C-alpha cells in the first residue's frame, strides 16, 4: 500500500512538473525552440562527459600508482577503503559518461544534425566504452590476493558472487534493492512525463511508453521469479 501511494505521489508530481514546465516555458510553439534546447543540451552533455572521463582517468592512474607503491603513507585498512571507494567512483564516472555519450549522439543525430558534433560524440562513445571496460578490470588489480574472475569470463556474475563473502553480499543486496525500487519509481515517473509531453508537443511517445511499461513488467516478473520459494 505504501508503495502504491508513493507511485501515485510521483505521478502527481510528474504531472505538475512536466505540464507546468513545458507549458510555461514553451507553450504550443515549441518546434524550433526544442531543437535549440536539444542542441545546447547536447553541448552541455559533451562538456560533462569530457570532465567525467578526465576525472576517471586521473583517479584510475592514482589508484594504480598507489597499488604499486609499497611505501604509501596509509595503513592497509585505509588503503582498502580508498581503493574500494575509488573503484566505485571510477565505475560510476565511466558508466555515466557512456550513457550520456549515447544520449548526446542520439540528440545530435536526430535533432541537432551537426556533423562535427556527431563525430565528436561517436569518439566519446568509444572512449567511454573503453574506459568502462578498463574500470571493470580494476577489481583484480586492487584485490590481487582474492580469487576473482576476469571480466569477460563465462558466468562472470555467478563467479563473482561465489567469491564474495556474506558481509559484501548483504551490502550488495541492500544496495540493489534500494536502487531497484528507485528505478521502478523513476520509470513510472518517466512514463507520466512522456504522456504529458505527447499531449503538449503533439509528438507521439507511445512506443517509448510501451517500452518502459514492458521493462517495468519484465523487471517485476524477474524479481518475483528470483525470490520465489524453491
Provide the fold topology.
Layout: H1 2-25, H2 31-68, H3 76-112, H4 115-136, H5 138-142, H6 156-162, H7 166-201, H8 206-227
Offer a concise description of the structure.
The chain is an all-alpha fold and 230 residues long.
Order of helices and strands: HHHHHHHH
Number of helices: 8
Radius of gyration, rounded? Answer: 22 Å
Give helix % range. over 70%
Percent of residues in beta strands? under 5%
User: How many E strands?
Assistant: 0
Could you describe the largest sheet, including whether it forms a barrel? none
Query: Which parts are unreliable, with pLDDT below 50 for 5 consecutive residues or more?
Result: none
Class computed from helices, strands and strand pairing:
mainly alpha
Average pLDDT taken over every residue: 76
Shape: flat
Alpha carbon gap, first and last residue = 27 Å
InterPro entries: DUF3169 (IPR021509)
Pfam families: DUF3169 (PF11368)
Keywords: Membrane, Transmembrane, Transmembrane helix
Explain the overall architecture.
With 230 residues, the protein is mainly alpha-helical. The protein has a domain of 122 residues. 83% of the residues lie in helices and 0% in strands. The protein is built from 8 helices and no strands. Helix 2 packs antiparallel against helix 3. The longest helix is centred in the first third of the chain and has 38 residues. The protein is flat. It starts with a helix and ends with a helix. Keywords: Membrane, Transmembrane, Transmembrane helix. It holds the Pfam family DUF3169. InterPro entries: DUF3169 (IPR021509).
